[in-house]
Amino acid sequence: MTVRVRFAPSPTGFVHIGSLRTALYNYLHARKNSGKYILRIEDTDQNRYVEGAIENMLSAMQWAGVNHDEGAIIRNDDLVQIGEYGPYVQSERLEVYKKYIEILIEKGQAYYCFCSKERLDEVRDEQKKAGLNQKYDGKCRELSKEEIKKKLDNGETHVIRLKLPENYDIKFEDVVRGNVVVNTVDMDDQVLIKSDGFPTYHFAVVVDDHLMRITHVIRGEEWLISTPKHVYLYQAFGWEVPLYAHLPNILNADKKKLSKRQGDVAVEDFMKKGYLPEALVNYIALLGWSPEDNQEIFSMKELEENFSLERVSKSGGVFDINKLNWVNAHYIKEKPIEEITDLAIPYLIESGYIAEGQVQEKYDWIKDLVSIIRINLNNLSEIGEKVAMFFNDEFKLSEEATDVIAEEHVPELLELLKTKINNADSIDVSDIKSIIKEIQKELGVKGPKLFKPIRVAVTGESHGPDLPQIMKILGKKNMLLRIDYVVNNFIKKV
Ligand code: GLU
Which of 128, 149, 260, 477 does the annotation list as catalytic? Predict the structure, then answer.
């Protein structure tokens, strides 16, 4: 049997990273088992429809490299569908649901319900007052064929409900949670077709999963409570029930479900901040699944080889931004320099330090800049603040930096540095290293006494990345300007 899994988002706005993780686990399970991964759009709730949400979701998945084999994709700006079990957009499948609800009614497993909203509210109120479980009281369960026909002919508003047997144990197997048994005593006769003629999620999901030959339903644990209804629907149709895997929630530090109020939760937020897709995917893969050893850095290919549903845990993983930063920093450092430069350029432009028109001409210089700065980045949007020292010529000095250049030997050292930079034919890392070596010999100073004043004079800061590389990036003219600026403004004349 070929493994077939699906991710079935409702296009209601931004893409929560929990959704990306659900998609990822489905994708990984398919890859690991040489199966197929399907993406189905669940848009039957017309009230929740948000313009552009489908495109947004598909592009987030593409960005993350979680690509599906069947379903809706964007091709040349159009939404197209690939695969032989389509359409993969539920609003295009209304005829299918119609056909299957009729089968269910015919089998006596579903029934028309004409109760008004007011009546349902009353019933619930009374149940509440009596301390009973609130559910539909079954008034329309036993309507005769004639009564139904009459009401339908009169055009009475109605829904179609599932006819659940009383006191019946519904059992199913969940890879993450083991065997689950739920009795129908507390369950409602679920609405399957709404009064607008659209199917509910519960009905559409079962019909589609069956028709699309889904073997494993891997989804968030918030759906666990609905699963008994789904399982009963399969049984009512006489269909084979898929294997379930309900994934634990991603949690905040306070162990509550990760929500927007606590910070970034949308894939788009992380994209914008300059998290790399490979880092986000690597990090969220480990939020709920654990490998056999303690490996923490996984390429997509390694995840595909190592992932298993059996190692998904029941308890939720806590989202830890510091850990994500650590993983992202790793990928920023490891990426080929051209690639990371290209990704960093929009952030440099945004920070206002580089104009779009200069990029081509300054490309090599930008590359040097990125190569030295990237070792200190958690994400690419931090680059603006980290490169500031290359652009602000008139800096202020911290107390520590002031102390560094207050030492007696510094004026002579900077004078010598200036002369040597002035006389140099080229300012490459090796030229700079020789200049510093010469000063060391001529003045007899070394270590911090030698390096720190030079660093403060050219950057205004007493700590930072590799000094010769910084000096190379600054170039001759800038360095001379800055040394003069420091000498004139911060060194006491005697
Ligand atoms: N459309 C549901 C959602 O928005 C899918 C739930 C499921 O995977 O069955 O998450």
Answer: 260
